């Protein structure tokens, strides 16, 4: 059975994006705040696709698709600690370019699972097997208020990644709810194994890195 909240959040993304598009953030793509330093501004949607922030149309035709560029860009994403443009909580530093990033939720969105050398890997950034993370079945976490599903990411990204809606729906088939006092799934069945889910890592990580997770439904 599909968990309904895993489906519900898909319909919420349009209004959330519209809210940000209507906000006025003053910048010019390629601006030079100091000599030989250029700044650009990007947006990552709930599916993990990368766009120029000021693109009027944000869909598959306007997102970045070149895998080597995406690998280069995503590997350099960090929390934005520059003190500039706090509306953009992440940044990708590429030489003398500062690439500020805002997101629908988080910059790392896991899109699919692949196998390599008998290991299950989560892909992100639409760069194929160039960007992967080890799948940890016991760390899957569903946020009850939104139905969104999360999985650990590297610390440099803030330690948490969003699971793409299509993949989240597939994974939700393997959720088990064994405790009435907990709204999140308590167990996860994966490849003949049943894992007791860690209920603490998610809150501990977002607190540690002061992440702003989307919490509205």
Automatic annotation (TrEMBL):
Q: Name one Pfam family in it.
A: DUF4505
Q: Which domain of life is it from?
A: Eukaryota
> What family is this protein classified in?
Belongs to the UPF0598 family.
Looking up PANTHER family in the UniProt record yields: UPF0598 PROTEIN C8ORF82
Protein name (database record): Uncharacterized protein
Species: Arctia plantaginis
């Amino acid at each position: 059975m599909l968990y309904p909240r895993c489906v519900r959040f898909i319909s919420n993304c349009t209004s959330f994006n519209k809210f940000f598009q209507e906000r006025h953030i003053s910048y010019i793509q390629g601006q030079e705040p100091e000599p030989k330093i250029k700044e650009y501004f990007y947006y990552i949607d709930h599916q993990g696709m990368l766009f120029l922030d000021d693109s009027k149309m944000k869909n598959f035709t306007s997102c970045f698709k070149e895998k080597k560029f995406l690998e280069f860009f995503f590997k350099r994403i960090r929390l934005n600690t520059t003190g500039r443009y706090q509306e953009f909580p992440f940044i990708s530093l590429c030489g003398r370019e500062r690439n500020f990033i805002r997101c629908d939720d988080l910059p790392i969105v896991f899109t699919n699972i692949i196998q390599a050398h008998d290991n299950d890997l989560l892909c992100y950034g639409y760069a194929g097997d160039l960007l992967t993370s080890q799948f940890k079945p016991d760390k899957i976490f569903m946020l009850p208020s939104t139905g969104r599903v999360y999985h650990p990411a590297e610390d440099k990204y803030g330690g948490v990644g969003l699971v793409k809606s299509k993949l989240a729906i597939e994974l939700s088939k393997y959720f088990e709810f064994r405790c009435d006092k907990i709204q999140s799934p308590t167990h996860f069945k994966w490849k003949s194994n049943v894992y007791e889910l860690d209920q603490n890592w998610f809150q501990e990580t977002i607190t540690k890195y002061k992440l702003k997770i989307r919490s509205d439904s």
